[in-house]
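Okay, any thoughts on this one?
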Amino acid sequence: MDVQKEVIAAESRIRPHIRETILDFSPHYSELTGGNVYFKLENLQFTGSFKVRGAMNKIMSLSPEERDRGVVTASTGNHGAAAAFSLGKFKATGIVFVPVGAVPGKVQTIERLGAEVHHYGEDGAVTEAHARQYAEEHGMIYISPYNDPQVIGGQGTIAVELARQLETIECIYVALGGGGLISGIAGYIKSIQPAVKIVGCSPANSRVMIESVKSGRILDIPSLPTLSDGTAGGLEPNSITFDLCRSLVDDFETVTEGQIQAGLRQYLQIHHMLIEGSAAVAIAACLKQKERLAGKNVVVVLCGANISLQTLKEIL
């Protein structure tokens, strides 16, 4: 896959429909690390997550006839909301399959945005396989949350903005689940700044991509519950993101649930802005590697803000 080409196409296609999110310099985290730390505020993106970039790009790349057939997707929450939001722009309909344990608030958001929600499976990979099969059986269009060139291209528009917003970037921390976000960002930014170091950040409780890259093949391993529900679950067999992560991601970091909690709480206290668990994963990974960051321009992608009030209450 030519990531740069997909990102450039996505940029021209979706720009009127998404926000260019702020790149926010953080004096506090810069002091903690000795680097120049910037947060990319995708928590302020439409639907509260970067996912609207990929979903919008994919849905806009479909013909009206394809959209009329109906769209099916699978999601732990954010991609489903992004797909529902994007479909609403074209008065199209869709079905979102979510795992049985999906966060209720995220499910309610998907329904509020007009999509039909079906629960299936305990793990995201099981939910995805079922959704793909459902789409085939019903003659509908399936949209993967990460395993799709247009979805990856859409997520990569974050890197187009970063290149405009900061002249020199030395390191980017990105939450890693299925790999669509990190593949899009890394594929584009490395095409124009090859020396940028990309760090994939996962919760220790769900590190399927990290373990798969280590093993040289996609593994089917279970995930434990995590505050980072946006990155939780397995990978589709033959996912195109696997090879992209192998070739584009320079380093991987895992963080504990305690580190995720601490990262989220500290960010709220200092920056007074809502983020979700998967965004806190990237913050915690950055802090874990702070000895490496002195004097460097560092970007931490805050991928979303969709945390339930109950979870937030427990963390606080």
Observations:
- The chain is about 50% helix and 15% strand.
